[in-house]
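During the reporting period, we have paired protein sequences with backbone structure tokens. One record among many follows, to show the layout:
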Amino acid sequence: MLYFSRWKVTAILLTIFVALVVLIPNYLSSDQIKSHWPSWLPGRQIVLGLDLQGGVYLLYQVDVTDYKQKRLKALEGDIRQAMRDEPRLGYTGLGIQGDVVQLKIRDADKFDEAGKRLHNLLNPLSTATLGGTAVSEFQLDQGSDGLMRLGFSSAGLDKRLGTVVQQSIEVIRRRVDQMGAVEPSIQRQGSDRILVEAPGEKDPARLKNIIGRTAQMTFHLVDLNVSPDEAAKGNLPPGEILLKQKEAGGIPMVVDETPLMGGEDLTDAQTSFQSQTNEPVVSFRLSTSGARKFAQVTTDNVGRLFAIVLDDEIISAPRINEPITQGSGQISGHFTVETANDLAVLLRAGALPAKLSVAEERTVGPGLGADSIAAGERAAMIGTVAVVIFMLAAYGLFGVFANVALLVNVILIMAIITILQATLTLPGIAGIVLTMGMAVDSNVLIYERIREEQRLGRSPISAIDTGFRRAFGTILDANITTLIAAIVLFQMGSGPVKGFAVTHVIGIVTTMFTAITFTRLVVATWVRYRRPSVVPL
């Protein structure tokens, strides 16, 4: 086992050399990397976690009540339409009562027909395939007196909430990515919560504003025939609502409750500037079907005001001077460049399916992150010095070999973290420190085996060769079992636990490399050149 072919030696040394090259950018500033570091060499730096470089920790909770009310409102409209389909069915008392939508069918002969139509609105979410249970979003309670109630089924609501959370995560991820955040962490917490961690984010207020807005955009026609003051007193025509303007001091407007279009037809939104005033505006582009719809709407309503509504606030109400058939338009609203950029981000990322509320918020300052880094560095340094001294005292020259292997191990760990762009956290540093102890433990096993073989009277070369061979199985078993535990931690854990597991898994792999391969190469090289008569252990 002490013989190494040339290609093996080359591969080991090349691995260490590549790791050193990968690590160098971590000691350069971003400007130095851009201006001096060759572009064909790896230029990535280690990504520090929230606890090391500061940033924002936000825990959002889906507003289940708001979601249920909106869903029931939509269901009420679907029921009304279902009853109006030919032949029409007479009903009374259609409305939302608590968590159900109820109505009463007038004609007893039409009960069965009404039940069939309402049954079509139950919205199946899964079918009873492979022995599973069919799940519908709603369930129908049908009374003998013609009273019918549609409400959420328990399994249907849970399934819908799961979908809402997953959709919200995707929308949040798009928004945060478009803000330019580096390595944000966005993950589900429990059944209805979403955890957002943005390391290095210096403007938590802007991040909250971007993430927390539902960004449901709709287009409505404005009714100038109704006075806003009268509307504020409740004198609103059927099918119309009063909305305030986002602009400070803006007069509320009466608009059609049913939007002519929704934001789902938008395909792109960018910040631009008005040619006459040079003010920031948001230019948007519609899909093909949306462009056709927009052209028809603007053709039919030339001369009227067209309210662009975002989250129940009018952000702009331009007059339609001529049909707009190009499938694009502009939103003006006294924006600054930043607010126009934020609106463009919201429109590009899409709307959240439900409101989110902040359940927990923490901001970690860069100073605290620097303290964490310093504390981690001190811990690593103290641990390293203690291990180095012990190995030198216990094994002399072979302790030097073990310490060199330990240094190589740390270099490989940091290089792999850099290559994978895994986020390094404070628990991750703890994982590296623990790995250092395990790395020298492998060397201790090997050296003790060599001692045993030497006591049995074997020659130095035979003792070393047998020591490495016999220790290999023990080291392999120990590291595999630890690796399994670390992988389980990574799969099942979250946050700090996952950060610890990542560096621990990497450390176990590099420990196997340094203990079994690199240390053996160093010892074999020493044996070849010194031809020792006794092993100094």
